[in-house]
Amino acid sequence: MFFLSRLANMIEALARIHRLLPWVIAYALLLPLPWIMTTFFNEYLIDLANRACLFILLAVGLNIVKGFCGQVTVGHIGLYAIGAVTSAVLSLEPGGFGGALGFGLPVWVSIPIAVLFTAAAGLVVGLPSVRLEGAYLALATLGLGESVRIFIAVTPALGSSTGLMMIPSPSIGSFVFDDFASYYYLVMTAAVLGIYFSFSILRSATGRAFQAVREDTIAASVNGINVVKYKLLAFVLSAVYAGLAGALFAHMPPGYLHHNNFTVIEMVTLLLMVVLGGIGNVWGGVIGAIVVTIAYDQTKDLVVYFMDRPIIIQPLVFGISMVLLVLFMPRGIGGLFEGIQRNRRFIRRSEEKLGGTA
Amino acid sequence: MHLKKKVIAGVVAAGVGLTASAAFADDIRVGITMRMVSENGQAYGQMVMDEIDAINASGGINGNMIKATLMNDECKSDKGVANANKLIFQEKIHLLIGSTCSSVSLPIVDVTAKAGVAQMIPHSTNAKITQKGSEWVFRIPVSGRYYGGVNAKYVGENIGTKIAYICAADAASVGDCANMEKQMRSRFGVDPAYRADVQEKEVDFRSHMQKIKSANVDGILVAALAETMARALVQSYEAGIGEDVRRIGSSSASNAPVPKIAGDAAKGVFFTAAYAAADDRPIAKLFNEMTRQRYGIHAPDHDFSQAYDLVRIMEMALKSTDLELSSSSLAADRTAIRDAIASVEGYEGLASGPISFCAAPTPQCRDGNRTAVLIGYTKGGEDFETEVLARVTMEPDFGLE
Amino acid sequence: MGFDYNSLLAFIIFGVTIGVVYGIVALGISLIYSGLDIVHFAHGEMYMFGAFFGLVLAHNVGLPYPVALIGAMVLTALLGMAVERVFYRRLTRAGGGYTVAGMGMIICGFGMSVALVNVAYFIWGAEAEPFRANLDYIPRLQFSGDIEVPESYVLTAIISVVLMAGLHYFLRHTKTGLAVRAVAHNKDIAYLMGINVPLMISLIFGLACGLAAAAGVLIGPMQSVQVEMGYLMLMKAFAAAVVGGFGSLPGAILGGIMVGVFENLGAAYISPSHKDIYAFLLLILVLMFKPSGLLGIEAKVKA
Questions:
Q1: Of A201, A232, A262, which residue constitutes the final position of a domain?
Q2: Of the candidates A200, B136, C48, C249, which lies 20 to 30 Å from B20 by C-alpha distance?
Q3: What does the alpha-carbon distance between residue A92 and residue A168 come to, in Å, rounded to a whole number?
Q4: For the purposes of burial, counting CB atoms within 10 Å of the CB of B73, is it exposed (0-12), middle (13-18) or buried (19 or more)?
C-alpha cells in the first residue's frame, strides 16, 4: 500500500508539470514490451497482450454505459460482433471464399466506417433504455445481442457457419501489420487512447451527467439533465469502444471471424472482468481485463480428476468467482483502490487544514 | 462414459507463462488442440495421448521421446488460434495436430502456414481447409467433397432423386449439404425437393416434417451434428413419415450419439463415413476391441479411427527423418517433418483405403484419404449395429471445380 | 391454389404443444419475480437439473415416469432452495438486488448459471442422453387426418393443465398459498402480520424450481437431455414471461403459447434458420411497447 501511495504521489507530481505527461511516460514504457517479451520470454505473450488490449477496450467501454451511467446492458458483445463483421465485410475482396460479401475497401477505411456503424447500432441497442430499467433492460439488451449473433450465424453473406476468412491485415504502404509485434502497437495505442478518453469523459460535464442519471433519474431530470439524451449518449460511446475493439479483432492475424466468438459465454467473461475490476472505475476495467485474460490463459487446460474422469475446472471456477465477487466484493479491485485514494485525499486535506505534517 | 485410463501430465496446460520456455533438447514436441467437451471428445484426445505414450514406451522415435501437449479449444476459432499460437511460439512445438471442428481448423491453417509448422488434421471435413494453398497442412479424414459424391451416387441410383434436405447451420453440415446438392445436380440434374436451413442446435423439426410429408419425397437428407440429427430422425417418424422414405445422414451420423439418442429411428439410416465398425478386416476388429476396452464405448466411429491413423502416420513420418532437435534447428526440424509427412504414400491402416500425400500445396495432394464407405444402421440404441453397403475410392480431384 | 389451412393448423398445434412447456418455465420465472423481486438468470439450469434428475430416477433407479417426474420436481426444488438460501439471500436482503449499481442479482444469476452448468458437466458429462419413457398408456392424437401429436406432447399438455390448476388451487384456496400471495404483495406488511417471510421466500423459490424441473422432465422424451439445454429454454421462457406479463401466472402460460406459435409460424412461413430470433423479436417488441405484457399489472422496476 505504501508503495502505491508513493507511486500515486509521483504521478501527481508529473501531472502538475503537464497534464498529459504521465500518459506519455506510461505509453513510452509500454512501447518496448514486444522486444522484452521476445528476448526474455517468448512471442506468444505478445499475442496474449494483444488480446488483453482488446478486452481492455471492451471493458472500459462497457464501464461507460454500465458503470458511469448505470444502465444494465448485457448485449455488449453484440456490438463487438457488429464492429468486427462490418469491418471484415467492408475490407474483404469481393467474391469471397465462402459466398461472403466483400467490398475491397482498405482497412484504414473500413475500420472507421465500422466504428461509426457500430455507434449507430449502439443507439439502437440503447433505445430500450429510454423506457426500461434493471432486469427488463437486461433482457432486452440480451435479446438484441443474441439476435445479432444468430443473424450472423445464418447469413452466408456474413460468413454463416464457415466464418469469414482471410480478412486482410492493415497496411501502410508496403508495411503490413500481420504479426504479433506490429499488431501490438495498433491495439496498445488504441487501448491507451481508450483509457485516456474514458477518464476525460468521467471528469467532464458529460461524465457528471452520466453519474447523475445513474444515481437517480428523476432527480437528474429535475435538475435539467436530459436523461434520454445522456442514456443514449452513453450507449453510443460504449459502442464506439466496442466497434473499435471488434474491428481490431477482425483484422488481427489470422483474420478469421466466426459467430461463436460472440456468444453469451464471452459476454459473461466480459461481465466478470468488469465486476472483478470494479464497476464505475476506469482502471477497474483495465485491471479486470488483464487479470482475467492472464488467469484464463494460465488455467485453461487444468484438469482435476473426478470419478476417474479428467474434468476441466476453469469454467466452474469462473462462475463461482462471479457469484462470490458479487456477494463479497461488489466494488471489485478498483473499489479497494478507490477506498485507498479516498483515505489519501482525506489525509491530505486534513494536513492542509491543520497546517502541518501528520 | 467413464475413461478407464488416467491422462498423463501432458494434458496440463503448458508452462507457468512468464518463465522462459526451456528448449528441451532431444524431445520431439507435438501440440494437440481439439474439442474436448463433447461426447467422446475427451476420448479422442485421450487416445492420441495414449498412443503417443505407447510410442514412447517402446523406445520413442529413434531414441527421442515425444512430448505431447493437449489443449481444449471448445470448438471456438479464437480459442483454437490462441492454442495454436501458444503451442507454436511458447511451447515451440515441431508439429501440430488440430482440430476437430472445421471452423477452428480453417484459421489455424493460416497460423501454421505463416509460422512454418506442419499441421495434421484429425477430424475436420470442410473442403476449403486444403484449398488455401498451404504447404503445411495434411488432412487425414476424408474431405467433405468426396462424401457428397458418394452419397449422391448411391442415393440417386438406389433411392430416388426426390430428396428433402434438412441442413443445420454448422460448418460441416453446411458443406455436406452444398456438396450433396452440387453432386445431385451434376449427376441427375435435380434440385432438392425441399430444403430447410435450420439452426445448429435446432430441437423442433415438426413443421419441416409436416411439409416434407406432403411433398412425397424418396428420401430425407439430415445434415447436422450428432444430437441434432438424432432429434430430426426421431421427429421424422413421430410426424408419421413412413419407413419407405429413406433417411440419409451426413458424416456426423457415424458419431455414437446418433444411434444412442435416435434409438429405433436410426434403423435404416445410411451415411458415408471414413470407417465402419462393421468392417471385417482383422485390423478393424482389433481396433474395435481395443477402444471398447480402453474407452468403454460400444463401437468406434471414424473420429476414433482417423485419430489413430494420424498417430501412426505421424510415427512413420517422424521415424523416417533425421532430426537435430536443438534449439537452433527448430525451423529446419519443422520443415523436415513436413517433408517427411508429404512423402507418405500408400499408408494402409484403419482407413477404408490407402492414405497418400504429396508435396504440392493442393487439395489433391493434401487430402490424403480418398475412400469413403457407405454405412447403414441395422439397429439403433446404445448397442447399435451397422453394415457396410459400399466402399468407394475417388479420384484426387473429385469435387473440385 | 388455396391456402394450406391444414398445414397452418399443424404449425399452430406444434406451437401450442411446445409453448405450454415455455409457459411452465415462465410460470416459475414469474413466481420468483413476484415473490422475490428478482429475475432469475439461472432458471434454465434448474430446468436442466430437473431433466437430469428425472432421467436418473427413471433410468438408473427405475421408477415409472410419473413418479420420476414428481421426484425430479422435489429434488430440484430442494436444490433451488439451497441455492437461494446460501447465495441469493444475502443479495436480496440488501434491498432487492440494488448492489453493484443495480446489477448484483443479474450478474450473480449469470455466474450461478455458468457454475451450475459446469457442476452438471462434472456429474453427467457433455453427452446428450436419450430419455426413454414408457408412455404407452397415453393416447396419441391425430388431427384432421395427418397431423400427428405424439404421446409425449399430449402428456405435456395434460400435465401443464394439472400444474396450472394445482398452483391456482394452492394460491387461492390454501392458507399457505395465501401467505405466499401476501409475501409477494408486500413483504414488510406480511412480516408484521406474523407470516414467516423467509420461509415463504424459500417456498416460492422451491415451487418455481419444481415447475422448471417438471418442464425439463416433460421435454426429455421429446428432445433428449443435455447439459446445455437450459440456456435456450431460458430465453424462450423469458420471452413468454414478458409477453404474458411478469408477475401474472395465467399470463405466463398464455405468453408461452404465443411464443411457441409465433416462432413456429415464423419458421414455417418466413425462414426456419432464424427461428430463435423470432422469440427475441417478440421479447424486444413487447418490452418496448407494452412492458407490462398482456396480462401484467405494471412494469415493476426491480433488479
A1: A262
A2: B136
A3: 7
A4: buried
Strand partners of residue C261:
none
Contact predicate C11/C268, CB 8 Å: yes
> Are the beta carbons of C147 and C134 closer than 8 angstroms?
no
Whether residues A110 and A243 fall in one domain: yes
| CATH superfamily to which B9-142+283-369 belongs | Response regulator (3.40.50.2300)
| B145-273+373-393 maps to CATH 1.10.10.10 | no
Report the percentage of chain C scoring pLDDT > 90: 28
A35 in any annotated domain: no
Q: How many residues does chain B have?
A: 401
Looking at this predicted complex, what is its ipTM? 0.89
Using DSSP's 3-state secondary structure scheme, residue B194 falls into: strand
- B8 CB near a chain A CB, below 8 Å? no
- Dihedral Cα B211, B216, B218, B223, nearest 10 deg: 0
Q: Which residues pair with C141 in a beta bridge?
A: C149
Interface of A with B in 121-150 (CB under 8 A): 150
CA distance A270 to A264: 10
Q: Does A190 share its domain with A282? A: no
The answer to whether the Cβ–Cβ distance between C130 and B263 falls below 8 Å is yes
The two most distant CA atoms of chain B are separated, in Å, by 68
Which residues of C fall within a CB distance of 8 Å from A319? 111-118
For C20-25, what is the mean pLDDT?
A: 92
> Could you tell me if residue A12 is inside a domain?
yes
User: Does residue A256 belong to the interface with chain B, where contact is any CB pair within 8 Å?
Assistant: yes
> In which domain, by residue range, is A69 found?
40-262
Strand stretches in B169-314, DSSP E: 194-198, 219-223, 246-249, 270-273
Task: Check whether residue A167 and residue A302 sit in a common domain.
Answer: no
Same domain, A222 and A307: no
Minimal Cα distance from C89: which residue of A? A327
B357-364 long-range contacts, Cβ below 8 Å, gap at least 24? B357/B138, B359/B135, B361/B133, B361/B134, B361/B135, B362/B130, B362/B133, B363/B127, B363/B130, B363/B131, B363/B143, B363/B145, B363/B397, B363/B400, B364/B396, B364/B397, B364/B400
Subunit contact B231:C224, Cβ cutoff 8 A:
yes
Residues whose CB falls within 8 Å of the CB of residue B347, separated by 6 or more in sequence, listed in order:
B309, B312, B313, B316, B354, B355, B356, B368
The low-confidence residues of chain A, meaning pLDDT below 70, are 1, 95-100, 306-309, 356-358
Q: Least CB-CB distance to A261: which of B13, B77, B102?
A: B77
Number of domains in chain A: 3
User: Given CB atoms, is C47 within the 8 Å cutoff of chain B?
Assistant: no
What is the pLDDT at residue B21?
40
How many residue pairs bridge chain A and chain B with CB atoms within 8 Å of each other? Answer: 131
CB contact under 8 A, A309 and B89: no
| The three grid cell numbers given for residue A175, joined into one nine-digit string | 508495411
On the question of a common fold for B9-142+283-369 and B145-273+373-393, the answer reads: yes
Partner A contacted by C286 (CB < 8 A): no
Contact B239 C148 (CB under 8 A): yes
Considering CB atoms only, which of A150, A320, A323 is closest to C276?
A150
- Distance CA(A237)–CA(B37), nearest Å, equals 37
pLDDT < 50 positions in chain B: 1-23
3-state helix, strand, coil in chain C (%, to 5): 75, 5, 25
**Quick check: helix, strand or coil at residue A234?**
helix
pTM value is: 0.89
**Helices C104-124 + A314-328 axis angle, to 10:** 150
Distance separating alpha carbons of residues B164 and B149, to the nearest angstrom: 17
Put simply, the chain A residues between 48 and 67 with a CB less than 8 A from any chain B CB are 51
Q: Indicate whether A286 and A226 sit together in one domain.
A: no
Domain locations in chain B as residue ranges: 9-142+283-369, 145-273+373-393
> Stretch C149-171: mean pLDDT, rounded?
85
